[in-house]
Amino acid sequence: MPDTFTFEDKSKRMVRVIFEPDGTPLFCGSDIATLAGYKAPGAAIKKDRSGVETVMRRIWWANSEKRGCVSMHCFTAENARLFLQKKPVQTEDVKWFLNTVIPDAESIGRQRAASKAESDKSAADMEIAEGKNQLVTNNEQPNLIDRLDAIIL
Fold first, then answer.
1. Mapping DSSP to helix (H, G, I), strand (E, B) and coil, where does residue 153 land?
2. Contact (Cβ atoms closer than 8 angstroms) between residue 25 and residue 17
3. What angle do CA 121, 117, 24 make, to 5 degrees?
4. Interaxial angle between packed helices 29-36 and 41-48, expressed in degrees from 0 to 180 and rounded to the nearest 10
5. pTM, whole model, 2 decimals?
6. How close are the terminal C-alpha atoms of the chain, in Å?
7. pLDDT tens profile 129-150
8. Per DSSP, what are the bridge partners of residue 5?
9. Alpha carbon of residue 128 to chain centroid
């Protein structure tokens, strides 16, 4: 399951973000449509996303009564900008998303990707070191035939 993060602010704005393994942030389409002022965000994404690519991802959600996971349309930063351009008036919510959420999400994605790459490199280095230790250990012990010859002779 990809890493998820929720951006929120004091005025109750919220955008859920999923980070791909390479650190690319994907923004929940219904959250973006809500910020843009659509009354029916799901329908708006299906209707108004012509020419704007989305990616289906499973997103976790929770409220005071329920929680679960649902497949939703998600946008890359570039495609989120294209989707928001379809609405001519930029509200404060949209400006917050464009000026704060996207740069912060991209920064977090780069940090997560760098951290993952570093941990993958460390794991690979450990596997190499363990392999070398096994070679040394195997070379130090005589093989079965040599041990039998020593016993017989």
1. coil
2. yes
3. 165
4. 100
5. 0.71
6. 61
7. 665 555 555 555 667 777 777 7
8. 17
9. 28
**Helix, strand and coil in the chain, % to nearest 5:** 55, 20, 25
Q: How far is CA 72 from the centre of its chain?
A: 14
What pLDDT band is residue 153 in, cutting at 50, 70 and 90?
A: low
Do residues 80 and 32 make contact, with C-beta atoms less than 8 angstroms apart?
yes
**Which strand (E) or helix (H) includes residue 19?**
strand 14-19
Each residue of 69-100: b (16+ CB within 10 Å) or e? Answer: eeebbbbbbebbbebbeebeeeeebbebbbee
Residues in the chain: 153
Rounded distance, CA 80 to CA 121, Å? 33
Considering only 13-17, 46-50, 75-79, 116-120, which range has the smallest mean pLDDT?
Answer: 46-50
Query: Could you read off the pLDDT of 75-112 as tens digits, one per residue?
Result: 999 999 989 888 777 888 999 999 999 999 999 998 88
Q: Is 37 left (phi over 0), alpha (psi -120 to 50) or beta?
A: left
